[in-house]
UniProtKB/TrEMBL annotation:
PROSITE patterns: HTH_MERR_2
Family annotation (Pfam families): MerR_1 (PF13411)
InterPro entries, A to Z: DNA-bd_dom_put_sf, MerR-type_HTH_dom, MerR_fam
Name of this chain's protein: MerR family transcriptional regulator
Gene3D superfamilies (alphabetical): 1.10.1660.10
Domain HTH merR-type: 4-73
Keywords linked to the UniProt accession: DNA-binding
Length: 243
């Protein structure tokens, strides 16, 4: 193509600022033309075409780092179109979730777990225990749904056994006791005995947990009650010692 143009005219033709042209030069997106005898850059129509391509891709959201290797503009635009479509789908899903949040109660747990939590008061558990379990299940199902499902089914099964259910109820009741109360020691012995009868010498549920989440959950429980903190230490020590 013949003819030369100044940087100002080039910017106007392409619909960008002179500063943008210089940025594209600095990033290696647009090759710099040779200067004339007066020291001015002289651009050609090829530069204008390249600049329009760069502007189009930049406006479409293509990172400048990707524009550097333009290749076939149609291929790049097709990639961007697919990315935008995926982004739009994600935004629509987010919008739906926000609308559900605004419309009323949110189901953060599987329906089966929600029904289970609703039955706990009738089994003798207090509001604090129910609220604690709800928060723990929400966290575990959000981070490790497979592990949470195993934990949930194990606990639901345990609560069908009157003797095991009593251990859970006793754990709820020692929450506010002084940590040195003999009831804490007695409960630790009974929990360890029941654990060995239930699981034998095999690994305990959660021993293969893929992250620190279960341990962090236990730490949070312990922090809420000095008695629970001591109970947890006694149980771990007796299980480790085999006594």
């Amino acid at each position: 193509m013949g003819g030369v143009i100044t940087i100002g005219k080039l910017a106007r033709y392409a619909g960008v600022s002179i500063k943008a042209v210089r940025v594209y030069h600095a990033k290696g997106l647009l090759p710099e033309p040779e200067r004339d005898a007066s020291g001015y850059r002289r651009y050609t129509a090829e530069h204008a075409v390249e600049l329009i391509k760069i502007r189009t891709l930049a406006e479409a959201g293509v990172p400048l780092s990707r524009i550097k290797d333009l290749g076939d503009v149609r291929d790049v635009l097709a990639d961007v179109d697919r990315e935008l479509s995926a982004r739009i789908r994600r935004l629509r899903e987010t919008q739906k979730r926000l609308r559900r949040l605004a419309d009323g109660p949110v189901d953060l747990l599987p329906a089966e777990v929600g029904r289970h939590l609703d039955t706990l008061p009738s089994l003798g558990f207090g509001p604090r225990w129910v609220a604690m379990e709800r928060d723990l299940w929400i966290l575990l199902f959000a981070t490790h749904p497979d592990l949470a499902d195993r934990f949930f089914r194990d606990q639901a099964d345990a609560l069908t056994d009157p003797a095991l259910r009593q251990l859970y109820l006793d754990a709820d009741r020692v929450h506010d006791l002084p940590p040195g109360d003999p009831a804490v020691d007695d409960l630790a012995v009974r929990i360890v005995d029941a654990t060995r009868r239930r699981y034998g010498s095999g690994p305990l549920p959660g021993a293969d947990a893929p992250s620190e989440i279960p341990a962090l959950m236990q730490d949070a429980l312990n922090a809420s009650s000095p008695a629970w903190r001591r109970l947890d230490r006694l149980i771990r020590a007796r299980l480790a010692a085999g006594t």
